[in-house]
Write a structure and sequence with these properties.
The protein is α/β, with parallel strands linked by helices and about 350 residues long. Helices cover about 40% and strands about 20% of the residues. It folds into two domains: about 180 residues, 3-Layer(aba) Sandwich (Isopropylmalate Dehydrogenase), CATH 3.40.718; about 170 residues, Isopropylmalate Dehydrogenase (3-Layer(aba) Sandwich). The chain contains twelve helices and 14 strands. The strands form three sheets. It has a ten-stranded mixed sheet, with helices on both faces. The protein has a two-stranded antiparallel ribbon with strand order 6-7. Helix 1 packs parallel to helix 12, helix 6 crosses helix 7 and helix 8 runs parallel beside helix 9. The longest helix is centred in the middle third of the chain and has 16 residues. The chain binds nicotinamide-adenine-dinucleotide (NAD). Nicotinamide-adenine-dinucleotide binds next to loops.
């Protein structure tokens, strides 16, 4: 098993270092190779996604990514900005499924804006289709309306569309992920108004025939938004299209209130994936040794579960993270009175210790 390690910029190298230490502390050894990406890629090779970095990512079984971006690159032309590296990797690796767990450990329940009893122990997974829908549909643009009530007026327009195969492949990812959890899947659509999402609903229902051990229900997106803040713990796995997923996954992430804790994965059709924390490169705290490495460590656990088929090792890491939180250790972003404040490396040390 080969893992491409792409630390990136800002706090990326600091948090990745801790995740690599955690991986090295497992019984099984993985081959890891590091390459520059983002601003670091630009500095080393004049491009945010250097050819050698892309080749390494393609050849590896999985990619562990830190974060990219720094204000000092804001003046570069768009194609050379660090953030382009993520888009390039998604496109070149055909990463069409975005998995974002929203987990709120009981010890951190105070960090949420919702009442602790509503969110404490929250553990849901949002799966967002990443390469289709109205974000990519053609035609799109601004034109003079050719007909209708606003004929002759300027209008903006986009195209919402999903091909059957696109819906099928994301549905398979979702059912398979649900199988690894509580076996409940909610497909979120807007079938009452949109043809595309009636079609979505029909196809997801059809794919369900292959996963009779998983319970499927359907929910309109407006209701899903409401339920996410009303009773989020009712959900297990949610699957939805690109636009609805964009909105719902951010809302779900914020339920937990602690951005330094949230991992994410982007997968292709063969479960090869790119794993990264949900947060950015946090240039404001880079180099200070205070960044929370847990989102990245938990991303490594997701990588073991989804791409490397090592569920037991993933469980071990997740349990080690729970153990350090139970010990009261906190980086500054999740610190509360009565707990012990630690830095990035001490948090990594504690997870490694808990693994043993
Ligand atoms: P950010 O997520 O980097 O930071 C937002 C806030 O959260 C900051 O106050 C930061 O200090 C804090 N924070 C983030 N991660 C943390 C951690 N692990 N521990 C403790 N605190 C943490 O978002 P931003 O400030 O809007 O963006 C900074 C840079 O990151 C920009 O260049 C942006 O383009 C880039 N970015 C990259 C990614 C990515 O690599 N996937 C995602 C989002 C933003």
């Amino acid at each position: 098993m080969k893992i491409a390690i792409l630390p990136g910029d800002g706090i990326g190298p600091e948090i990745i270092e801790q995740a690599v230490r955690v991986l090295n502390a497992l019984d099984e050894k993985f081959e890891m190779e590091t390459a520059p990406v983002g601003g670091a890629g630009y500095e080393a090779h004049g491009h945010p996604l250097p050819d050698a970095t892309l080749a390494l990512a393609k050849a590896a079984d999985a990619v562990l990514f830190g974060a990219v971006g720094d204000w000092k690159y804001d003046k570069l032309e768009r194609a050379l900005r660090p953030e382009q590296a993520i888009l390039g990797l998604r496109k070149n690796l055909n990463l069409f499924a975005n998995l974002r767990p929203a987990i709120l450990y009981p010890e951190l329940a105070g960090a949420s804006t919702l009442k602790p009893e509503v969110v404490s122990g929250l553990d849901i997974l949002i799966i967002r289709e990443l390469t289709g829908d109205i974000y990519f549909g053609q035609p799109r643009g601004v034109r003079t309306a050719p007909d209708g009530a606003f004929k002759g007026e300027r209008e903006g327009f986009d195209t919402m569309r999903y091909a059957e195969s696109e819906i099928r492949r994301i549905a398979h990812v979702a059912f398979q992920a649900a199988r690894k959890r509580d076996k409940r899947l909610t497909s979120v659509d807007k079938a009452n108004v949109l043809e595309t999402f009636q079609f979505w609903k029909d196809i997801v229902t059809d794919v369900h025939k292959e996963y009779q051990d998983v319970t499927l229900d359907h929910m309109y997106v407006d209701n899903a938004a409401m339920q996410l803040v009303r009773a989020p713990k009712k959900f297990d796995v949610i699957v939805t299209g690109n636009m609805f997923g964009d909105i719902l996954s951010d809302a779900a992430a914020m339920l937990t209130g602690s951005i330094g804790m949230l991992p994410s994965a982007s997968l292709d059709a063969n479960n090869k994936g790119l794993y990264e924390p949900s947060h950015g490169s946090a240039p404001d705290i880079a180099g200070k040794g205070v960044a929370n490495p847990l989102a990245t460590i938990l991303s490594a656990a997701m990588m073991l579960r989804f791409s490397l088929n090592r569920a037991e090792q993933a469980d071990r890491i997740e349990n080690a993270v729970k153990a350090v939180l139970a010990q009261g250790l906190r980086t500054p972003d999740i610190y509360e009175e009565g707990t012990t404040k630690v830095g990035t490396k001490e948090m990594g040390d504690a997870v490694v210790q808990a693994l043993r």
